[in-house]
């Protein structure tokens, strides 16, 4: 189990349909996040993602845990869906489309104290 905890992002393969192969698999690869994504934080080994840590932010916390079935993993992620909802996704996509920094306007807390 120790070797499992040293898993690297480049070794994670996510495939919801075991019958998909070829073009279907390669099309999914570009949908996976990479280590340089600003709003995705991969936690240290054993740390459980908790919603109170993303409250009022645009961040996604994620971690991978071993499953009791060999060769499988449990991936847990959390977001604040009131912030990381349709509006912030639209703004993030607009920023990318217009050539602005991806995070422009997304670091302000929308919560009332």
UniProtKB/TrEMBL annotation:
<dbReference type="InterPro" id="IPR050085">
    <property type="entry name" value="AGPR"/>
</dbReference>
<feature type="domain" description="N-acetyl-gamma-glutamyl-phosphate reductase dimerisation">
    <location>
        <begin position="35"/>
        <end position="81"/>
    </location>
</feature>
<protein>
    <recommendedName>
        <fullName>N-acetyl-gamma-glutamyl-phosphate reductase dimerisation domain-containing protein</fullName>
    </recommendedName>
</protein>
<dbReference type="InterPro" id="IPR058924">
    <property type="entry name" value="AGPR_dimerisation_dom"/>
</dbReference>
<dbReference type="Pfam" id="PF22698">
    <property type="entry name" value="Semialdhyde_dhC_1"/>
</dbReference>
